[in-house]
Structure formats: C-alpha cells, structure tokens
Amino acid sequence: METLILPTDSSELAKEAVNQAIARLRNGEVVALPTETVYGLAADALNPEAVARIFATKERPLFDPLIVHIRRADALATVAAVPGEIEKEINRLTQEFWPGPLTLILPKQPVVPDLVTAGLPTVAVRVSAHPIFSRIVRGLERPIAAPSANRFGRISPTSASAVLEELNGRIPLIVDGGACSCGLESTILRVEPAPEGKGKPLFHILRPGPVTADQLKEFGKIVKPRPPRPAESPAPNPEAPGMLASHYAPATPLRLLHRPEDFLPAPGKRYALLSYRGDPKDGFVDRHDWEEIAILSPGAGKLPEAAVRFFFLLRQLDRLGIDEIIAEPVTEVGLGQAIMDRLRRASARKLDP
Ligand code: TXA
Ligand code: MG
Per residue in 33-78, pLDDT tens? Predict the structure, then answer.
C-alpha cells in the first residue's frame, strides 16, 4: 500500500486533506491525523472492523484500549455515561480543559464497541484542540478512536515524517498538520467520587501529561500514583492497560541517570547524551566524548520546550545506530513529571531482543 501525505498549508490544501480523511474514515480505513499532543492513528470508533484495523496496523495487543475523540464536550453522553456523583466535577474539568490534552476515564455507553475499550466497562474520552483534527471529527459526525500513530511500544510521532517512519506502507493517508504543539500524549485522569460524598473528588492520574497535577489540584484531590510495573511482569489488568513500564522505547537502549558519576562507559561502545539544557554545570556534557548531544531546551531549560522536542530528539538519537542513549533527568515539576514518566518507561525497556 502506498502512503500518501497530504499537506494543509493553505485553505484549499487543508480542505482537500480534511475531505479525503473523512471519506477514508467513512469507508472504514485507518488514517494518521495530527492532534496537539502527538499524531493519532484514527478510525471510526463505532465501526469494530475499522477499529480492528488500528490494532493490526500498530501490532497493538488487544488488551490495550483506545482513546475515543469526540467533537465537543456536549457530545460526551453519546459515548460515556457520567455518574451523577461526579457530574459537576466532570463538567468543570471539560469546561476548563476541553478542547485540549486531557483524557477522562468514564463508564462507557453500550454503543462503544468492546474492542475499543478492550472489554473494560470504561472508555477514555478526549476532545482534541488541533484545528484539522477538529474539522475531521466534526465532518465525520462520529467519534474517532485514535491511539498514537506509532508501532506498539515505540516512540510516539510528533510530525508527519515521524508517522511515515513508523507506518510507511501500512496506511493509505497521513494528514500533515505540522509539528504537534504539546509533543507529549494527553494526561489521563480517572475521577472517583469524594469518600462518603464529602470534600473533593479523588483524582487518579493514570498517565501524566500536558495538563499537570498542579493544574488539576484545584478541581480535585490528587491521589498518589502507583509505581510503574516492571517490564517483565505480565499485565493482567493494570489500571491503564497500555501503561506498561516499557512503553515509549527507542530501539537503542536508553538509560536515565540521576548522577553523572554513575556513567561508566564500556570500552569501544558509542554513547549519545539526551541533555535537558546542555549546561556543563549539570555534569553530564563534559563527562564523556559523546557521539552526539541532543539538548531538549538549550539555555535556562524550559519544560514546555523540552516536552515539544522530546520525542523528536529521541527519534533522532535512535537513528544514529549507537550502543546506548544516556538521558539526564529534567526538573520533576509540572510538565517535567510527564517527561520523566516517559524517560523512566523508555529506560525500563528490556535490553535483550
Ligand atoms: O494524546 C493522546 O492521548 C494521543 C492522541 C492521539 O490523542 N493518544 C494516545 O493514545 O496517546 P494511546 O493509545 O497511545 O494511549 C492511550 C492510553 C493507553 O495507555 C490506554 O491503556 C489508556 O489510554 N486507556 C484507554 N482506555 C482506557 C480505559 N478505559 N481505562 C484506562 N486506561 C485507558
Ligand atoms: Mg501510545
């Protein structure tokens, strides 16, 4: 199959791309679409055959449920049944953060195929803020199921060329909406009613992302997350089933080191550094004659910039064919929590084939 990339740089081109994407989605095909977080591999969420194609294309295990993208918050009831006890909180959250990078876990409506939710009674829902995605989901008039447009367990794509690298020949169409403005996948949140109906609802952040714990805490009480599961252990039913410890891995082994002194190069091996701000004062840059140094946010170190560049730079380092990528930690506050989550998962990858 030939993979076509359609640009959206002018209003005519955008219109053509949007129309072609809608036509293919109606036809039960899968297409890659831009969102503000990462590119998604989209299909009609209410068509089980189309959804099955997402799993096949990504080689994704069927136990890992998909996110359903709706056009606006007022369409939420079509796919999810919001429990009365948390209705007020859900409304506040959707008003504040939708459209945007927040995914909510809610009881599902029967119309959502079990394949989408991997048999769970809940569904993950979000509204993308990307203008092109938004036009497509509105034009289709159906919800869109879309995981990140990478092969399973690999680096999420934040540009059309990254999608091509992942899925060339496997999908008919990539809509090129430019580089993703967040660069990290949405925050996934499950809201639990306040214990005995008193006080704030409990917020379980199943995946840290662009909407930070700091932003969420005024709406609910953040419950401390469980530590990620080790890559080796089976995943019978973790709370977010796709959140295996070994996610987001480059093909090249990656090691997150907290202290530069912990880096002891093996003779003859080639290493690259993924640095937060490229500052020698942090101790990593001059530690070794690195094959390459990729800097997430040169200068003062800005977390939003680091987030936008994260998957892009990781992908670039992965192409070098070196022995190992060494990653410096970033400041673990705000967006830094989402970046550190991805670094830990990439670092947990099993090193043998
Ligand atoms: O930003 C994003 O969320 C992107 C864009 C394309 O929207 N999508 C994305 O999808 O990151 P994906 O499939 O790569 O990650 C979705 C995560 C998985 O880890 C999955 O386990 C979790 O959402 N998930 C989906 N449905 C769930 C449910 N009912 N309960 C708990 N977790 C769920
Ligand atoms: Mg993914």
Answer: 999 999 999 999 999 999 999 999 999 999 999 999 999 999 999 9
Q: Does ligand 1 lie within 6 Å of residue 36's CB atom?
A: no
Distance of CA 73 to the CA centre of its chain: 20
Q: What is the pLDDT of residue 246?
A: 55
CATH number given to 4-176: 3.90.870.10
CB of 148 closer than 6 angstroms to any ligand 1 atom = yes
Residues whose CB is less than 8 angstroms from the CB of residue 27 and which lie 6 or more positions away in sequence, other chains included: none
Residue 182 CA: nearest ligand 1 atom is 1
Q: Which residues of the chain have pLDDT under 50?
A: 232-237, 350-353
CATH T-level fold of 254-347: Rossmann fold (3.40.50)
Is residue 207 packed enough to be buried (19+ CB in 10 Å), middle (13-18) or exposed (0-12)?
A: buried
Strands across the sheet with 271-275, in order? 254-256, 324-327, 271-275, 292-295
Say if residues 73 and 169 touch (Cβ distance below 8 Å): no
pTM exceeding the 0.90 threshold for the entire prediction: yes
Q: Which of 103, 117, 204 to mutate to test the pocket of ligand 1 (most atoms within 8 A of CB)?
A: 103
Which residue's alpha carbon is at the smallest distance from atom 21 of ligand 1?
242
Q: Are 205 and 188 in contact (CB under 8 A)?
A: yes
Distance CA 279, CA 133 (A): 38
- Beta carbon of 146 within 6 Å of any ligand 1 atom: yes
In a 13 Å sphere around the CA of 76, the CA atoms on its Cβ side amount to 22
Cβ of 66 below 6 Å from ligand 1: yes
Cα separation, 26 vs 40, whole angstroms? 17
Domain ranges of the chain: 4-176, 254-347
Would you state the pLDDT for residue 199? Answer: 87
Q: Name the closest ligand to CA 204.
A: 1
- List, in sequence order, every residue forming a beta bridge with 192; answer none if it has no partner: 202
> Which protein residue's CA is at the shortest distance from atom 32 of ligand 1?
240
Position 52, amino acid: A
Alpha helices in 274-322 (DSSP H): 303-318
Contact 206 CB / ligand 1 (< 6 Å): yes
